[in-house]
Design brief:
Elements: H1 4-21, E1 26-29, H2 36-44, H3 48-51, E2 54-57, E3 59-61, H4 72-81, E4 91-92, H5 101-114, E5 120-123, E6 145-148, H6 151-157, E7 170-173, H7 176-180, E8 185-189, H8 195-203, E9 221-225
Parallel strand pairs: 1-2, 1-5, 2-4, 5-8, 8-9
Antiparallel strand pairs: 3-7, 6-7
Helix pairs in contact: 1-2
Bound molecules: fructose -6-phosphate.
Fructose -6-phosphate binds next to loops.
């Protein structure tokens, strides 16, 4: 597609179609810049069925104080819960401050299962091929767990903080195995900075060195990308 607005339009068409067909009850949502055009478009085209969705976020930083504006709980509230007028009780974000993070990760997986699984998962992609915060070397079968952020990811995300040192070193993220269980996946990416990751994900070997390549194993995964992000595809 040509630009960010087109990406949002295309992805929102797909979501609204599934809502109308009654096959979308639980949406997996990503933070970051890539899906913002989608959330804005869904806000514009809002329907009561959209407001009735359950939502599960992909990831959260470990250790940010509660209410920190850049915690993913705050970002999801601003960009997703508020725009899509979701019931906050139906929006789940992994906990980055739980005293027992491993137990909180297991509870998050159990909450996804109790909701009947994720019908459609929105993803972005990191320049290093990460999805969620599954950095290169993540097990292809991994579940929600604590991960260490790579320094390239912390540099990329420092744009949301005063400087790179404020970006947490650890995160909690849905695993690649968790993401693969979503019934449908829409990965959104725009810009030349994502072109190499997109080419590796689509045309490279399935490898933990490019975590997004695991989507080659998914029966219903669509990459919604602009021309610049597509420029290294053969
Ligand atoms: C966000 C997430 C990340 C981002 C990725 C791309 O919840 O899990 O994988 O999708 O880092 O970020 P943007 O879209 O800001 O380029």
């Amino acid at each position: 597609l040509e630009n960010a607005a087109d990406l949002g339009g295309y992805a929102s068409d797909r979501i609204l179609k599934r809502l109308a067909a009654g096959t979308l009850r639980t949406l997996g949502v990503a933070t970051g810049s890539s899906p913002l055009s989608l959330y804005k478009e869904l806000e514009r085209r809002w329907t009561p069925a959209l407001g009735a969705l359950n939502a599960f976020a992909l990831d959260e930083y470990v250790g940010l104080p509660p209410g920190h504006p850049e915690s993913y709980a705050s970002v999801i509230r601003r960009e997703v819960t508020d725009r899509l007028r979701l019931d906050p009780a139906k929006v789940h974000v992994p906990q980055g401050n739980a005293p027992d993070l491993a137990a909180a990760c297991a509870e998050f997986e159990a909450a996804i299962a109790a909701a009947g699984g994720i019908d459609l998962q929105i993803l972005g992609i990191g320049r290093n091929g990460h999805i969620g915060f599954n950095e290169p070397t993540s097990s292809l079968a991994s579940r929600t767990r604590v991960k260490t952020l790579m320094s390239a990811t912390r540099v990329d995300n420092s744009r949301f903080f005063t400087d790179e040192h404020q970006v947490p070193r650890h995160c909690v993220t849905q695993g690649l195995g968790t993401i693969l269980e979503a019934r449908e996946v829409l990965l959104m990416a725009q810009g030349a900075a994502k072109a190499e990751a997109i080419a590796r994900a689509v045309e490279g070997p399935v490898s933990s060195m490019c975590p997004a390549s695991v989507l080659q194993l998914h029966p219903r995964a669509t990459l919604v990308i602009d021309e610049e992000a597509a420029q290294q595809l053969t």
